[in-house]
Specification:
3-stranded antiparallel beta sheet, alpha+beta, Tetrahydropterin Synthase, Chain A, single chain, 11 helices
Amino acid sequence: MILWKCIDIADNERAFLFRRNRFIRVLEPGRHRILRLAGETRVEVYDISKVLFDRTNAKFLLNTHAEKLAPYLEPYELSDTEVGLLYRDGHLVDVLHPGTFLPVWKGVEKVRVDIIDISEHYTLDEKLVSLLGRGSKLGKSATAISAIHTVEVPDEHLGLLTVNGKLEQQLRPGSYGFWKCNRSIGIQLVDLRLQTVEVSGQEILTKDRVSLRINLSASYRVLDPEKAALKLGNYAEFIYRELQLRLREAVGTQSLDALLEDKDSLNLGIARDAREKLAQYGIEIVTVGVKDIILPGDMKQILNQVVEAQKESEANLIKRREETQAMRSLHNTAKMMENNPVLMRLKELEALERVTARIDKISVYGGLEGVLNNLVKLQPSGSAQ
């Protein structure tokens, strides 16, 4: 019958010796002989190179056998209003939640736990934000994500920080971090740049019951982020609905002809009404413009016919005016020629020039005198010269 059992403990190991389920002592590196006759024995071996002592009832064991375990283990315990930053050899490796109990092996690495009271202060230091931010390796760990809320506020934006549903402060552009433990953290980003909203495809009846399809475009800017975000919730949807309603009201009170003749008055009316409404919520309407007024097919045909008739009437009027002016000029010329033989002769020569320009060959009788005097005559023979 074997009375002794030999146990070898490596340099990176420590072992707990239990007899009859009672803790006896810690076995250090080397060979140990354990007497079996003393009762049922059990040896638990731990790798201390992992630094963290992971055992289910570690807190109970350390409390009941503090003197025996003190040379080997260092316990850290956080209250319900504290968080911890775990450093190993000067490197931040983990975030400890409130109420955490963490025992570590001594003499393996230089372990430090920085304890932070978050009962009142919940803002992270700027250096910690860079270490625990979303871009860092540690910031992507499950413990950091569950304990810390990080946010980046871009330029021309403003962040609204709410803690437990209450607005606490406005965040200027930059990086921020907040402890989420024991509280609810919310951050809403508000864009302060000039933005546009498109109200497209609105089917609206005019005052004379003509169905139109209108596209509207507007630009706006948020002047008071607190009013816009807290009183309206989704202020972009509110702006869209407000412009939509103002457009319907403006179109419904005007006839088709009035809309087509003066779109600027429609834009000004919508902008004036919407600007007064949205100014109450810290939003400025900068511009409003109707982009397109689309008519139904049959109405297009009718309007084209009306425009065609109008243009034909204008063309006929211009033609008659020009004819009248030409007749008046011709009458004045005839009056001048009636009492001026020299002017009459000049007109005959002009007529002769035009005739000869159109004829390839002319047969002349009576010599040059016949050509000059008898070929073209603008007054009857025997008239006064």
